[in-house]
Amino acid sequence: MHESFSSALNEMSVADAVMQLASGTVELALEDAPEFARWCWCWFADVLDSNWGLTGRLPAAGDDVLDALERVAGMCRTSETKALSPDAWRAAYEATERLAHSSAVTSSGATYLALSAANDIALECIDETHPEFTVAIALAFESLAACAADSAVARCWIARALTEWTNRTHPVAGGPRTGEAPPIRDTRQNASIVSAGCGERGLLRVSGNL
User: 20 to 30 A from 95, CA-CA: which of 61, 106, 119, 148?
Assistant: First the structure.
């Protein structure tokens, strides 16, 4: 059994590593991460809505999709300091559910997976005092991989997300506090941004690139 998802990602294909994460065989958090940081709200928000997250990677996503991802991301950011009502999460769940099953979304695997991740976060938060987000993150990582031109780019993008997680759960001296979100940026023009260390490549959705 692997200690963390990052170790699994180094030893197997992206698809297999994501499957291990979804099944609970590996953990997203490192073993020595503090319990309160197991699920870092601001990190989930950025997975949905940031230049390295879904709104920054999805090619040609419609405004309705971006708005839905940004809405759930905003709710995650609010939840960092203030619990939201189940009704608020239910409304987000129902909205993402309707949108995810529209014909425009179901024709794009990456977009459907992205909305499914937001939908699962909302679902978990309706009734659960301590929601479990493993499935949501597996869906988000699958969406990132579906957006990437090939498996090498997919690994790089997911590794960037894992680095952001580590920075929040193990902040360096003088860096952001655990749970502190970076400044919110408009990510709608960032679809061509590629993480540092990855070569510049166009965002092409290639089936089977997991």
Answer: 148
